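Section 3.1 - Work completed
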Amino acid sequence: MMWTVILICFLASLLLTPVVRRIVLKFDITDKPDKRRINVVPIPSLGGVAIFIAFLIGMFLLPIDKTLLWPLVIGASVIALTGILDDILELKARYKLIGQLLAAGIIVFWGGINITFINLPFGGEVYFGYLSIPLTILWIVAITNAINLIDGLDGLAAGVSTIALLTIMGMAFVMGDPLVIMITAVLAASTLGFLPYNFYPAKIFMGDTGALFLGYIIAILSLMGFKNVTFISLIVPVLILGVPIFDTILAIIRRIVHRTPIAMADKSHLHHSLMKLGFTHRQTVILIYAISALFSLFALIFTMSTFWGSFLLILVLLIIVEFFVEVLGLVSQNYRPMMRLLRIERMDREEEQE
């Protein structure tokens, strides 16, 4: 039954995507080239509609309790509609946020998805109480936007999301959580069916419809799989979604440093910075896939480590991230404290002078 549903979702997405593309072209709903986009010719948008429909088909075929099915479907529909309106009308940031908050509220209040407490490493528990709901909504909205922000290259958001989904599914299998396995498998299959049309050179973009929808469901799945766990295990979903989360955090820091509006788009994200180093479009996407897979590997090792092993792992990861942040100039070209400390920057300049 499960494998049949997965195959149906994959084929539905694979067959629906070209249909959506033809309809979108008829109404001229395209991403036209501008100073912040990579594409040099207009590309049809709204490809996320195919992923969304394929996912819905899978949801209604799976034996899922209606108490979760309907909140998930309605919430997903709200976020997808928000994306559709944004792709067509280019909504202002505040209107998109309203849609995201509404979708998050549906799954939290109606679906009962939230983190109520965490177990501390050395004993004891921390209950969030009234903060449980706002913290959960904040997580869902943050991850929703994080996936949206990395959707800047052909196949990037779809590929990174699939890697994250497969990792969540693997961990759910180890933890014996069949519900998370089923939903994750359906979404991964729906995304993979779309990817052949979206990988470089893209024939269609998923648009905000797909990026917001993927981010929303992934955020919920990460909560379903890792709620009410230890403080250390709470870091696992952060690691799995490391690429979009770190890219979003750095984008916020960068805009604060440069005193530009946080909601203003720029061309200094991870994928932009890699392309400035000379990597091709395809090479950049594959490299970020590899980085995303590395984060997922860290997450898997993390779950099997002792407390001090986990602490050391995080420390090493943060040092690696900091190094790449400075080399790529993801905050600012002048932000290089670690390189100055190690005198790497001075060595680079001396080599340039020679």
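Second construct:
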Amino acid sequence: MHMQEKSAKSANLIEVAMKLMNGIRGKRTALSGSLRLAHPREPLRIRKEAAAAVETKLRQQWRRGGRPTWTPHDENAYDVVERIRKETERRNRNNVTRTAAYWSVFRSYPELHWALLAHMVSRNGGWSMTDLRGEWLPKLLDARTAAAVFRMLESCNALIFRDAYPQLRLYEETRRTGRNLFPLLPAFGVSAFMAPFWERFRIDGDSAMLTAALIVNEQHVIEWRVVQDPTYRDDAAIAAAMFSQRVLQLNQIVFPLGAPSDGGSGGIPRLAGRILERFDDLAERIAFGKSLYAMLYAYPKVLNGVLAFAEAVPHSGSRADYWPSLFTADQADQEDQGVKEERARLNSVQIKAGGRPDHSDRTAGGNAGTRWFSPRLEDAWDDQPLGPVNDYDWLGSDGLASLRHMRSLRPPLVFDMTSEHELGQRKLQAATLAKDKLLR
């Protein structure tokens, strides 16, 4: 019986290796898929004259000593600040509430491009959090490491929301009341870097420049409070987990293009996205965010697909939100592991060249037992309060060097991630089987 089990494990490992090779060959199809999605293309640029005007304002602010100190100057302003603070704290409860808040802002004010970008990136943050309690990572990471990685992901998400959401709400209140409320930005600890960009946006409505500025700002927010924080930077387990993800190219941000069909074998959306190579590199994270934004707004097919998905599918944190025929959020759907591995071996997804993932070879029409477990956030993790935050201004340590990121926006050429994303799951599956084989 033991020999039969070892033989089955070896067969599964060989089969997964073959699927990995298929996935690697599928990389070639990403280029053709990207070319189709990239046409037509809309112009997206940061206007030089607008950027120069903002730079002049920033240099003047810098000479005056950076961010001004805010003190309540009238009762109405105090009420606005307190209301937004309470709302921010309430909606910053977890990844699901944050993601919904971004979407609500975007639906009301679609000129706030960053709100849609943040909504989609926040969805990915939730999927990464639940992966830690999903099909593969619990077999590769010990519980302490998984909890530490979750705390890091949650801190990044919560800090960005804490900084950015009040900015979005001040814009909403400015529009609603007709009063310029951006002088209240210091009340929320927002960097002096952002004030001239919001003032300019109020005048000319240049969504591209404002979005790029928010990307630069929010990456600086987490740089000094998380990435360079010794709590996370010096944790060997976190470092090992992040290194493994980089080697396997698993730091993927994916945007589903359309909603999954109900019941259809081929009714799952293609994915557009990118792979972040080095999370610990500030300049790379900024360039990555700008690339995602340009992909989203320079290519109408991507934007329309993302909007269709976001409108139709509420965020739960489970990857079943976008690929329900590959993932399941319900633990009850899980069969005996040995049976499931054999079914997965027989029913692996094939990515046709340039086409949609084809599930027609699955028995029982994609039986739940063949799916990978991806829990909802509420079933995976308890809420984690953010705690006190030091509101120092990152502009003081960076000077004006970050203005170099405000020069251009370049959409990526290769961004069809459909095959690459499934390949990432296959890599995790192979790593799990290999570890299991070594331990036997």
